[in-house]
Amino acid sequence: MKALRLRSLLLLCSLTWLSCNGKLEFDIPPDAGPNGAAGSGGSAGTAATTVPCEICAELGLRCTGDAAGCAECLDDDDCAAEGKHCEPRLRRCTECDDMRGCESGKLCDELSHECVQSCALDLDPDRDCGDSGLVCDPNRNVCRACSADSDCLGSANGPHCLPYGARCAACAADRDCSGETPFCDAVTFECVACRDTRDCDAGQACSYESGCVPW
Predict the structure, then answer these.
(1) 51-102 pLDDT, tens per residue?
(2) Would 211 be classed as within a structural domain?
(3) Are 69 and 112 in the same domain?
(4) β-bridge partners, 178
(5) CA distance linking residue 210 with residue 115, whole number of Å
(6) Does the CA dihedral 187-191-193-194 come out positive or negative?
(7) Which of 2, 25, 112, 129 has the most CB atoms around its CB within 10 Å?
(8) Residues 157 and 169 sit within 8 Å (Cβ to Cβ)
(9) Per the structure, how many domains does the chain have?
(10) Based on the domain organization, do 64 and 113 belong to the same domain?
């Protein structure tokens, strides 16, 4: 009996010693913070934007509050003076957005965000796009200007055909650009130095007119 009591006492002392030396770590949540409190399971994150909002204002742009830094618009009010709409994904002022902004007989092209002539049967029974010189795309019910770059040879708008054939342009994708202007602007479809601040070096902000500018 004395031997059993002695073994029990020794076991109790061992557990007490382990606890006092912080060895029972399985009682602490695996994502605990430094004080043993449950953590978020992720990093603390970074600042919403590296470009101060006052810099965006100086460039005539809106502060996005995220990595993009500055944008042309955040809502339609920012584009009202130009009679345009704010495209929510690009945060740029465009001629139309979905079905908004186009007059009767025209549709908003989903890529260029421009109003293009419709050749829907109820508007153009012959689907011939009139005397515009354009070709009807019966799958999208719009009159397209081109179907391949070869259709844009000699075009004053540029040598590349935009996807869906809305028009010819200086570029249709980044691969059409190089040098100091390696990006294809998603609204003007011209080669530019940057599309937003993420295309610039640290300490710079993207100005659509001047490229990457230091702040």
Answers:
(1) 899 999 999 999 998 888 999 999 999 999 999 999 999 999 999 987 678 8
(2) no
(3) no
(4) 181
(5) 28
(6) positive
(7) 112
(8) yes
(9) 2
(10) no
Residues 94 and 127 in one domain: no
For residue 80, how many other CB atoms are within 10 A of its CB? 13
Of 152, 171, 190, which residue constitutes the final position of a domain? Answer: 171
Let me know how long the chain is. 215
pLDDT tens digits along 140-179: 888 999 999 999 999 999 999 998 888 999 999 999 999 9
My answer on whether 123 and 147 are in the same domain is: yes
Is 188 domain-assigned? no
When computed from its CA atoms, the radius of gyration of the chain, rounded to whole angstroms, is 31
Here the tokens at position 89 are: 């994904």
